[in-house]
From TrEMBL:
CDD domains: ACT_HSDH-Hom (cd04881). GO terms for biological process: methionine biosynthetic process; threonine biosynthetic process. It is an enzyme of class 1 (oxidoreductase). It comes from Spiribacter salinus. Keywords: Amino-acid biosynthesis, Methionine biosynthesis, NADP, Oxidoreductase, Threonine biosynthesis. Its EC number is 1.1.1.3. Residues 355-431 form the ACT domain. The active site is at residue 205. NCBIfam families: PRK06349.1. This is Homoserine dehydrogenase. NADPH binds at residue 105. PROSITE patterns: ACT, HOMOSER_DHGENASE. Belongs to the homoserine dehydrogenase family. L-homoserine binds at residue 190.
Length: 436
């Protein structure tokens, strides 16, 4: 049986994991794909460096273009990360008539529309299962398994690094910076970890999920993006007192006349399955009609889980070798000529409940002033906690939970509360979702 010859770009965490997995499960993978899959040529920035995988049976060199141009390589696996060079290499591979597998969510979220069009023109396929939620086969599940459903909303923990940090802050009381450094050591974090903690990586993934769920073009610039940087251990503790956990979620949902796309920290009732997804684990909940809610859970980052998704795509590509291009599963689940122009709405049109924390003077009547602003704005309050002042402190922390409200109304109410003389500094606001 003639092996399928793969060219691999990047031998870091995921590249090394992919080589190891192809070796470890070679027999099973061959039985599933119908042919063995061999990495025959790979590019690495430091070809002589000690690696986590064997490079014995492959040509190894510095120049990634040489791997793409090698007439021997049939499939190119792009695992260098970044955007510009990755795009150039991907388009070049496509033009050379090669199939591409990538784990690069930034590349797909920003340039997927163009890449898929070029792949269609050239009759090749581009696999990107590893780009969203690591090892969880979420692209496959939504694109194929749920194909008979209308998707109402989708919400997920889709950045392993942020979830790892939040879990360690909650259960071990550890400091943000120390946990982030550990996530980097474990190979979970992006090359630039601000992508993880500022919500950029989750926004890349949500962009892809939203397109597949709703059949809209990839629109990264329309995602409302907040990271976990503003979450303090106090907020984690107060949320817990109220029966909630704080999770960083990506949410896309039909909102009024369009679709809302947002990633931000969110309070979730602690009994919810998603609230109990900890560490580097990811989970995506999809609410579809008529199926109802389904939940997809698994490791969202790291060498082995991500390699699992890369290899799944490789096998899919090999199985598709004999398929006519028009019979392949469409990239964004919907046929390319059937993508919709349904608008993505701004955050002001999104409805959500809120956790608010503020520092107020410890005087009678202050709480009534704050709740008065909310009730004047028609915002109902679900719970209020007023903490004891710290010794010597002029102010006390006040925590409020509200019912669902249009975000634009809440913006105005928060400004009015911050303008009260008795309220010091700015409010902390975290959205609350019950995902019902
Ligand atoms: N680490 C993870 O858990 C996951 C990573 N990803 C994505 O997978 C991709 C790779 O990520 P990691 O393996 O974690 O990164 P990494 O930094 O461990 O590996 C990237 C490797 O590519 C090499 N490289 C960079 N430019 C190159 C070039 N021009 N030619 C040859 N080699 C080059 C680097 O030296 C490095 O060894 C990224 O797009 C990332 O977003 C996706 C899912 C999970
Ligand atoms: N940095 C990412 C890696 C997987 O996509 C994460 O932490 O989730
Ligand atoms: Na995946």
């Amino acid at each position: 049986m003639q092996p399928v010859k793969v060219g691999l770009l990047g031998l870091g965490t995921v590249g090394g994991g992919t080589v190891n997995l192809l070796e470890r499960n070679r027999d099973e993978i061959t039985r599933r794909a119908g042919r063995p899959i061999d990495v025959v040529h790979a590019a690495a920035r430091h070809p002589d460096r000690a690696r986590t995988c064997s490079t014995e049976h492959m040509r190894l060199e510095y120049d990634a273009f040489a791997v793409v141009d090698d007439p021997d390589t049939e499939i190119i696996v792009e695992l260098i990360g970044g955007v510009d060079l990755a795009k150039e290499l991907t388009l070049r591979a496509i033009e050379r008539g090669k199939h591409v597998v990538t784990a690069n969510k930034a590349l797909i979220a920003l340039h997927g529309n163009e890449i898929f069009a070029r792949a269609r023109d050239n009759g090749v396929t581009v696999g990107f299962e590893a780009a969203v939620a690591g090892g969880i086969p979420i692209i496959k599940a939504v694109r194929e398994g749920l194909v008979g459903n209308r998707i109402e909303w989708l919400a997920g923990i889709i950045n392993g690094t942020s979830n790892f940090i939040l879990s360690e802050m909650l259960y071990a009381g550890r400091e943000f910076g120390e946990v982030l450094a550990e996530a980097q050591r474990l190979g979970y974090a992006e090359a630039d970890p601000t992508f993880d903690v500022e919500g950029v990586d989750a926004a890349h993934k949500l962009t892809i999920l939203a397109s597949i769920a709703f059949g809209i073009p990839l629109q990264f610039d329309k995602v409302h993006m907040e990271g976990i940087g503003q979450i303090s251990t106090d907020d984690v503790a107060y949320a817990s007192e109220l029966g909630f956990r704080i999770k960083h979620l990506g949410i896309c949902r039909r909102e009024g006349d369009g679709i809302g796309l947002r990633v931000h920290p969110t309070l979730l009732p602690e009994r919810q399955l998603l609230a109990n997804v900890d560490g580097v684990m990811n989970a995506v909940m999809v609410n579809a009609d008529p199926l109802g809610p389904t939940l997809y859970y698994g490791a969202g980052a790291g060498a082995d889980p991500t390699a699992s998704a890369v290899v799944a795509d490789l096998v899919d590509v090999v199985r598709e070798f004999t398929l006519e291009p028009e019979n392949r599963v469409p990239y964004l689940a919907f046929q390319s000529h059937s993508l919709s122009d349904e608008p993505v709405v701004g955050m002001e049109a999104v409805d959500t409940a809120y956790y608010l924390r503020l520092e107020a003077q410890d005087e009678p009547g202050v709480l009534a002033e704050v709740t008065g602003v909310l009730s004047q704005a028609g915002i109902s309050i679900e719970a209020v906690i007023q903490k004891q002042p710290a010794p010597g402190a002029e102010t006390v922390p006040v925590i409020l939970l509200t019912h669902r409200v249009r975000e634009s109304k809440m913006d105005a109410a928060c400004q009015a509360i911050e303008a009260l003389d008795a309220v010091h500094g700015s409010l902390v606001r975290i959205r609350v979702e019950t995902l019902a």
